[in-house]
Write a structure and sequence with these properties.
With 281 residues, the protein is mainly beta. The protein has a single domain, classed as TolB, C-terminal domain (Neuraminidase), CATH 2.120.10. It contains no helices and 26 strands. Strand 2 and strand 3 form a beta hairpin. The relative contact order is 0.16.
């Protein structure tokens, strides 16, 4: 049985979701193209819109204590902070010193609560960067790039490097994280010809999964950098323009997929244990 046969529509009726994140309580959160923030019951039976920015939601990420959700909004060119108890929205950052956000695309927290955000730059202009923020919101340009459309981010298992999906490379690059937290050497992780990489997630064995806006595939890249196709939905019914991905479920062995090409979140019974994020530790 292929993984596509183990994939289901987990929750339907969303507005072309770009992003997905799993809360420690098992709920699955996603965004919509008109600013919606959705909370989906752990069993997928109920979808609730808990907030709305009025923009266009790209990547989302939970803080280490899951007290707030970082929301990348390309419509408002900012990152929002959503209190996960009160559902109050506040503007977290419009950029950092020397740079105003154009397309804040994806967010990831380290275990100390620092927030990395990819700035895609502009389409067909190699101007992507990585910004970094303290828990209080003080930001800096962490890596100047330039990246050819910086997109999804994933911290390595030991948080000594940050992987960046570079959509028009196309492939993945990595930046070393120095002991003092500054950016170190930049290197090529893999290339994925004739694709548009978007989302990233690691498993506990150090394999990196890359979801692609096009074609409808998710790739697996081993620590030795061997590339294979994890799943391919050429019909684009269950997986359609898969953008962001996140591991969830009680054992973190289910892979949730946001499909910006349709109106649902997919759940794959992958049998692969995901690397816990800072909010899951």
């Amino acid at each position: 049985m292929s993984l596509l046969d183990k994939s289901i529509v987990f929750a339907d009726g969303l507005d072309h979701p770009e992003c997905v994140a799993v809360h420690p309580d098992g709920t699955v959160w996603a965004g919509g193209e008109a600013g919606q923030i959705y909370r989906i019951a752990a069993d997928g039976a109920h979808v609730e819109e808990v907030a709305n920015t009025g923009g266009f939601i790209l990547g989302i990420a939970f803080s280490p204590d899951a007290a707030w959700l970082a929301i990348c909004d390309s419509g408002h060119h900012c990152v929002w902070r959503l209190d996960t108890k009160t559902m109050q929205l506040e503007r977290f950052a419009d950029g950092a010193a020397g740079h105003a956000f154009n397309i804040p695309n994806y967010a990831v927290f380290d275990k100390k609560g620092h927030l990395y955000v990819s700035e895609s730059g502009a389409f067909r202009a190699v101007t992507g960067k990585i910004l970094k923020f303290t828990p209080e919101g003080k930001g800096e340009i962490w890596h100047e790039g330039p990246f050819d459309f910086a997109n999804g981010l994933a911290l390595g298992p030991d948080e000594t490097y940050l992987c960046v999906a570079v959509s028009f490379l196309p492939g993945v690059e990595c930046v070393a994280i120095q002991p003092d937290g500054s950016a170190g050497a930049r290197s090529l992780y893999c290339t994925l010809p004739e694709t548009v990489p978007d989302g990233l997630a690691f498993d506990v064995e150090g394999n990196l999964y890359v979801s692609c806006y096009a074609p409808n595939k998710i790739f697996k890249v081993t620590p030795a950098k061997a590339v294979s196709v994890l799943i391919d939905d050429w019909e684009a019914h269950t997986i359609s323009n898969p953008t962001n991905i996140a591991f969830g479920g009680s054992a973190l062995d289910q892979l949730f997929v946001a499909n910006i090409g349709r109106w649902h979140i997919t759940k794959i019974d992958a049998g692969i244990t995901g690397l816990p994020l800072s909010s899951h530790r």
